[in-house]
Amino acid sequence: MNDNYKYFCDYLACPYSKNNLKLVEDFRSRSFESDTSKYPIKNDVPVLISKLNYNNTNNEKYTKSIEEFWNSGWEKRSVEDDHSFLYRLNEEELFNRLKARYDLQKSRGVGIGDYFSNEIKLNSLKNKTCIIIGPGCGEEAMELNLLCKAKVIGIDISFKSASLTNTLLHKFGDKSGIGVQGDSRFLPIQSNTIDFVFSSGVIHHSPNIEKSIDEIYRVLKPNGKFCIALYHKHSIVWMKFLLKAFLRGNWTKKSLNKYTSNQTEVSWVTDDRKNPHTRLFSRAQCFELFNVFDDVNIRSGNFHTPGNFFLKFFDPLEDTKIMSKFGTMIYISGSKK
Predict the structure, then answer these.
(1) Which of 128, 169, 124 is nearest to 148 (CA)?
(2) pLDDT of amino acid 1
(3) Is 325 exposed, middle or buried (0-12, 13-18, 19+ CB in 10 A)?
């Protein structure tokens, strides 16, 4: 039995009231209870989503469509060749894989690659409690755990992602972390309890990113830090994508947003389920979104040459400061005041 959730009870909260949760166990089932609701623990994963957070049927239905898209998507992706091997690795093999990725990003130069080239250092979170919003297959949660020595709570809208994350975290030791099903707009976490919040390429899928960012601020301790990565609207890849959308007649903001959502995250598409929501962001928008935080740093990075024969001349420039300004991601970091 994986009972890691017992070690993280002091951090978990009712997603609606934000009050403490009480663990209730008997020989048939286990659950968390609050002053308003009861939340099941399924296959050792707390399901901390409350219908009370969705004030109308349409809101709840839309949230359900997002949950189903990502859940079915991870059911599919977790058994594909680029993910399935992760769950067969031993601790040394997984550590070496993660360390090699870290070293590659560091080698690209400060502020050029992803979050490991600048914002997150080895052992920088030792014995700290972190949450990762959108842990996906669980690999990024293991980056924080194995490389940075953090205790990790992975929170995802899909049960499958939470379960995959839980599996990896539990595989390499008790009390290392837990996967939880939850909504980034209503984080099931106590206020002022978290040392570090991390999310890479996820909350731009939130139907209300402003609310998700408010929640990040709420759960952080005073002086707690965060690192968030969002899709960069002014990257070469996304400008090429938006030009294609415009040429296909998507001239209004609404139609452009719908096109962007439906035509992205295609690797997670199953049956007729298309990605319900994705937004792209500029640096100016990010400064506005995160203006409540302190010491905010915003940079673009992780440029890779688009898969286009005519753009191959960018290859030698991939690891330069100039091209990092046109990278696919914006990295936002800072701290709570």
Answers:
(1) 124
(2) 56
(3) middle
**Rounded Cα–Cα distance for residues 123 and 116 (Å):** 12
Q: Is the pTM of this model over 0.90?
A: yes
d(CA 240, CA 293): 32
Q: Which residues of the chain have pLDDT under 70?
A: 1, 307-311
> For 294-306, how does the pLDDT look when each residue is reduced to its tens digit (9 = 90+)?
999 999 999 987 7
Residues 72, 37 contacting (CB under 8 angstroms)? no
Q: Which residues pair with 268 in a beta bridge?
A: none
- Distance separating alpha carbons of residues 179 and 105, to the nearest angstrom: 26
Q: How far apart are CA 312 and CA 310, in angstroms?
A: 6
**Residues 170-221: tens digit of each pLDDT:** 988 778 899 999 999 999 999 999 999 999 999 999 999 999 999 999 999 9
What H or E segment, with its residue span, contains residue 94? helix 91-107
Q: What is the DSSP letter of 184?
A: T
Where are the strands (E) in 45-172, listed by range? 45-46, 129-133, 151-156
Residue 200 φ then ψ, to 5°:
-120, 110
Tokens representing residue 261 in the block: 């959502």
**Residue 232 main-chain phi, psi, to 5 deg:** -95, 110
